[in-house]
Design goal:
Blueprint (H helix, E strand, L loop, with lengths): L4 H14 L10 H7 L3 E4 L9 E5 L3 H5 L6 E4 L5 H18 L6 E5 L10 H10 L2 H14 L3 H12 L3 H10 L15
Parallel strand pairs: 1-3
Antiparallel strand pairs: 2-3, 2-4
């Protein structure tokens, strides 16, 4: 069942407030994970396809294979923005699925595939890109940046998230790239 935009926004705000994390441009996702009782471990055999993984309620086969519960395994060789998103994504899945008793395993393999129905992606974006700050900065960028790619790049750098997150957030918040024509300088 796809959760509503408002439900995910409220979940992100409540999570951040409950953990005492300062709301801003770059919430500390590593501190969030630790505060939730999750460990972050570097993937010692990273592949270029895997960004992160999370296991909840593992079974005997998991433990025999050396997997541990409540650990986010991250490919730290990736770009810092990708790593931040990968951690936020697994935090989101922990928040969404930790209360379930069944085994839960999630692996994030790519940021190139857009899935507007993945609540984990949508919640991760809500955690990383505060709605009010994002809309405010989106509008500012439209006034000072020449095209939609430059706006996405500007917001990606400001919030320290991949371009993918910015694109998803623009779509979810139903924002439009409407640029005002620049006036030529008169001599």
């Amino acid at each position: 069942m796809r959760r509503s935009h408002i439900e995910l926004e409220n979940t992100a705000e409540n999570l951040i407030a409950s953990l005492g994390i300062k709301r801003g441009f770059k919430p500390d996702v590593k501190r969030m994970a630790v505060s939730l009782g999750l460990k972050i471990s570097q993937d010692l055999k990273p592949s270029n396809m895997t960004l992160s993984a999370l296991l909840l309620n593992g079974d005997d086969a998991d433990y025999l294979a050396g997997r541990q519960d409540n650990v986010i395994v991250v490919n730290m060789s990736r770009d810092e923005k990708d790593v931040r998103f990968a951690i936020a994504y697994q935090i989101a899945n922990y928040v969404l699925f930790a209360d379930e008793r069944a085994r839960y395993y999630n692996q994030l393999t790519s940021l190139q595939v857009s899935s507007p129905d993945d609540d984990g992606i949508r919640l991760a974006n809500a955690i990383l890109l505060n709605e009010t700050l994002f809309i405010e900065n989106f509008k500012k960028a439209l006034k000072g940046v020449p095209n939609d790619f430059a706006v996405r790049r500007n917001l990606s750098d400001k919030f320290q998230v991949p371009l993918y997150s910015v694109e998803q957030r623009v779509g979810e918040l139903e924002l439009e790239y409407k640029f005002k024509p620049t006036k030529g300088k008169r001599k």
